[in-house]
Amino acid sequence: MTENTQLLETRVLECLNAGATVRDLVAAAIELLTEAINILVLQVFRKDDYAVKYAVGPLLVGAGPLAELSVRLKLVYALGVISRQEYEDAELLLALHEELQTNPNEYHFTDDEILGPLGELHCLSGFPAPPTMLDPAASEDLVLMQKQRYQQIVRSTVVLSTTEYLVRISAKKAFTDDLLLK
């Protein structure tokens, strides 16, 4: 792992861990994904100042055809810069982000409404099994502690998997020799 990759990974981890809620984590993930995709899209286009100012700029801002992240994602996927699984994960994160923006409910990482969509991510290898209470006479404090512990385990799993995914996307280069040979 290069020093730049380590710095990027640290930055992504800090951003994802900054928020306490599911909504915060997903919003941070979308912000970081947007940055990474923007860099890839800019790599696709010509680099001279005239092209960037008069041709590329209007495509990417305001009502330009590439102003929306979902359209830029389709472009980098269609050009072979990101894989199908990376594209599908990005679309899933976008859909979850939109749902969380329109839904006023505050969800926990272990809620079915969150575990379901997150469980479909390719970048996430899976969640650990939820704790099972063997002793029916266990105190409420113990049950609460186990639920909180599981909540933290799921959150950590999501943060680490999302970090790896975002670092991988951010480290891509458009039109490298590897991409041209595919």
Automatic annotation (TrEMBL):
Pfam families documented for this protein: MtlR
Top-level taxonomic group: Bacteria
UniProt protein name: Mannitol repressor MtlR
SUPFAM superfamilies: MtlR-like
Gene source species: Biostraticola tofi
Coiled coil residues, start to end: none
Gene3D superfamilies: Nucleotidyltransferases domain 2
Organismal lineage: Bacteria, Pseudomonadati, Pseudomonadota, Gammaproteobacteria, Enterobacterales
GO biological process per UniProt: negative regulation of DNA-templated transcription
